[in-house]
Design a protein that fits this description.
single chain, six-stranded antiparallel beta sheet, 34% helix, two-stranded antiparallel ribbon
Length: 237
């Protein structure tokens, strides 16, 4: 397995256990992105600061009922509409600051450093996902997920015979342990985006979270809109 895939697969497994994420109705096995570290990026961002502005992009979840509490009868679209994006200030600075001497820097050196506008746009998507997840607004969180993640949820939902509502929001609500709420809230508040590494269709946002932990979130640019391509960031440190 290639270096980036190994780093993300191992880290994500640890993080999912720590957050208490469990699959219901069996697991289809999430596939790691088959990425390969190409030529190392020459254009490190020296802008020093990237401010994530309030995002207003929504993918428009189709209105299936039950995204909130069971029996609420509220549609996914109604639930998602309640989410109000917050403004976050990110330090930027590029991936060089996250490199570990003698360590596995496959993500930090992946592809090339994105320019400031792309970094800011990807940061908005990440923050909105983390904020929606922390609020327990699963419908809004699903709006910021990539098509690949949503397709994985469809496969999982097909196995979860006991769940009537097989929407992304409902499945996500079942996947995340309520005990993880405090840690998800803390991560959303602490998240500070420093880098966006891009090569072809593969991208990673590198950010610091709780207690300065450095994490990488796989990202996908879909028709000009950035989406998260995983349920959680993978620790790099």
């Amino acid at each position: 397995m290639r270096r980036v895939s190994k780093t993300l697969a191992a880290g994500l497994a640890v993080l999912l256990v720590a957050l208490g994420l469990v699959a219901c109705g069996g697991s289809d096995g999430s596939s790691s992105a088959n990425t390969e570290t190409g030529s190392q990026g020459q254009a490190e961002s020296n802008s020093g600061s990237s401010v994530s502005k309030q995002g207003d992009t929504k993918s428009g979840n189709e209105g299936k009922s039950g995204s909130g509490d069971e029996g609420s009868g509220e549609s996914n679209a109604d639930e998602a509409a309640k989410f109000v994006p917050k403004q976050h200030n990110d330090s930027g600075g590029g991936s060089t600051q996250f490199r570990v001497k003698g360590g596995d820097n496959s993500v930090q050196e992946f592809g090339e450093e994105a320019d400031a506008p792309e970094l800011s746009a990807a940061a908005v998507a990440l923050h909105n996902f983390l904020d929606a997840r922390a609020e327990g607004n699963w419908a809004a969180a699903c709006d910021y997920m990539s098509k690949g993640v949503l397709e994985s949820f469809e496969k999982l939902a097909a196995q979860a015979k006991q769940i009537e509502d097989k929407s992304c929001a409902r499945i996500l609500g079942k996947l995340i342990n309520p005990a993880a709420k405090s840690s998800m809230k803390a991560e959303a508040e602490k998240a500070n985006v420093g880098s966006l590494r891009v090569e072809g269709d593969q991208s990673f946002v590198i950010y610091t979270g709780i207690d300065g932990t450095v994490l990488a979130m796989p990202m996908a640019n879909e028709d000009g809109s950035w989406k998260v391509a995983s349920l959680a960031g993978t620790p790099l440190s």
